[in-house]
User: Fold Helix-turn-helix transcriptional regulator from Allorhizobium terrae.
Amino acid sequence: MELGHTDVTGTVQEGAREGNHNPKRCDAINSVLNRVGDKWSVLLVMSLAQGPCRFNELKRRVDGISQRMLTLTLRGLERDGLVKRTVYATIPPRVDYELTPLGHSLREPIEALGHWAFDHYECIVAARAEFDAKQ
Amino acid sequence: MELGHTDVTGTVQEGAREGNHNPKRCDAINSVLNRVGDKWSVLLVMSLAQGPCRFNELKRRVDGISQRMLTLTLRGLERDGLVKRTVYATIPPRVDYELTPLGHSLREPIEALGHWAFDHYECIVAARAEFDAKQ
DNA sequence: CAGAATCCGACGAGATACTG
DNA sequence: CAGTATCTCGTCGGATTCTG
Assistant:
């Protein structure tokens, strides 16, 4: 995954030339992109925006997610330090998930994306219709 | 894909209650998320940031992309109105791709994401190491 | 040069069943 | 309730080959 002399932050690398890029920056972009690219991750982060939530409550909120994907996605978010998992040793068991400060900080760029989506949706739909009409 | 009373723009819906969400907003979020979630799309948008570019030049810039995916991704971006395709009837043929104003506007939220990624990368790597150590 | 078409393998993700 | 463990099927995407 190399972009020549440009990266996804939009900054142009100083001494950039053919084959000379910033591998660390590339890794950073990639891992975050993979996380944000994952639709369940984004949905979960936004579902956890207002506060802690239990497993099954999350399952209800994020309609359509399977138990398996909910578990896997939460694990991934926890591993990345975006979500904190708290187990209460009660019967029946209770597990709360909540955003860490890092998780909260991710909301900003995600919401920026959400706003862009909403603001330009009509535009995109129109473009699609026009494109399809030509085929 | 429903979020109960929250959506990815972070705004809380006015009269939101169980099962009452904004389907149009959901569609908008989804289609944009799918596009941004697609790693090649993001990479291509950023590769086209500085100006028009030919097919094979793009293939060289976005290292690792297959011809097939380059074609398909460019088609998708063109269909969404993010990229403009210009064919020059020369021999050999020449096709230029460039961002539309809409495509350029998408750079902002993408770059915001890129900056977040870079700024918090160390943090994420550390979290992962800690998480993995506990297993 | 800029694709279109075909083949095919790997992996993502749903459904289902079981457990502490 | 909050998971884990399989199994399976669909599609995504890479490699290869062919064309105007």
